[in-house]
Design goal:
The chain is mostly helical. The chain has helices spanning 9-31, 35-68, 74-84, 105-206. 82% of the residues lie in helices and 0% in strands.
């Protein structure tokens, strides 16, 4: 009888763990494309992008080489200086120049007239601002006065209402006192008449 084949447990576990990796390696080896085939596929599908990236790479190499050696590319160095100076590498005119009037007496006179007109406009603008501020101040004062008058009228109205209420209360108290005095007078009169009647009856009985 042939002896049994015994496989240790750890060998069996390692074999199971390595089996997927071995299978993937065999699959990759059979279906893997060579570098030449991949290059041909990339050239066929992405030839324009590859060429553009190569051109950009060459431009970047030239750019950094010119930065290391400023004398190699004077135009690039000039642009870099303008960038460093905030685009103010050259003096630029911000207004048109009439060559016919530049440096002549008529040009000087026109310049003086323009300066005077500009000063006049600035003066008018300043006066307008002053007038505007003064109008605002007047309106503010008028508003304050109106508010003060309104408060005074309100206080006068309140005081008048208070005086009317006090007078009405005093009149009601005087009327109540007069009614009480009249009632007491009437009672006194009735008592006097009753006493006179009793006296007359008593006198008649005696006679």
């Amino acid at each position: 009888m042939a002896p049994r084949i015994r496989i240790p447990a750890h060998v069996f576990g390692y074999s199971l763990a390595i089996a997927p990796a071995v299978a993937y390696a065999m699959y990759w080896k059979r279906n893997h494309k060579s570098d030449q085939e991949l290059e041909e596929i990339l050239k066929e599908n992405y030839s324009t992008k590859i060429q553009g990236n190569r051109d950009k790479k060459e431009e970047m190499v030239k750019f950094f080489a010119a930065m290391k050696d400023p004398t190699a590319n004077p135009g690039q160095e000039k642009k870099m200086q303008e960038v460093l100076y905030g685009g103010k590498g050259d003096i630029k005119r911000h207004y048109a120049v009439d060559e016919k009037l530049y440096g002549t007496q008529e040009g000087v006179e026109r310049r003086k007239m323009a300066e005077e007109e500009q000063q006049q406009q600035q003066k008018m603008k300043k006066q307008y601002n002053v007038a505007k501020s003064s109008n605002k101040t007047k309106q503010k004062k008028k508003k304050q006065q109106d508010d003060g008058l309104e408060e005074q009228n309100k206080e006068a109205k309140d005081s008048k209402e208070n005086s009317n209420s006090s007078s009405s209360s005093s009149s009601s108290s005087s009327s109540s006192s007069s009614s009480s005095s009249s009632s007491s007078t009437g009672a006194t009169t009735i008592a006097a008449v009753a006493a006179g009647t009793v006296g007359m009856l008593a006198l008649a009985a005696v006679l």
